[in-house]
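# step 3/5: fold
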Amino acid sequence: MSLDNCKIYVLSYFCNLIITVCFMSRIICLCNRVGGNDVEKVLSKHPQASIKDVMNLTAASTSCGRCRSELEAFIEEIKSKQPATAPSSQLTIPFDFS
């Protein structure tokens, strides 16, 4: 690969990265391009999700790990804004016996 091709490749990579970052609500994991909106979506569908669950579903903090504390803080921030609801003790049966 020539030097010119390397420059074009690097420039293309950083342009894509900048475009991705511009459209994220809040950057959580730069390595895997995970934004705050991605984490919020997971937590809205799975309010009791642990940090490991969020990591598995979004790939945040699964590369270098430097964003782990940011991810933990963001999860706590989102969970603190959610209304406190106790888990239902009733068993929901999806059949109608009437």
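# step 4/5: annotate
The chain has a mean pLDDT of 77.
# step 5/5: archive (pending)
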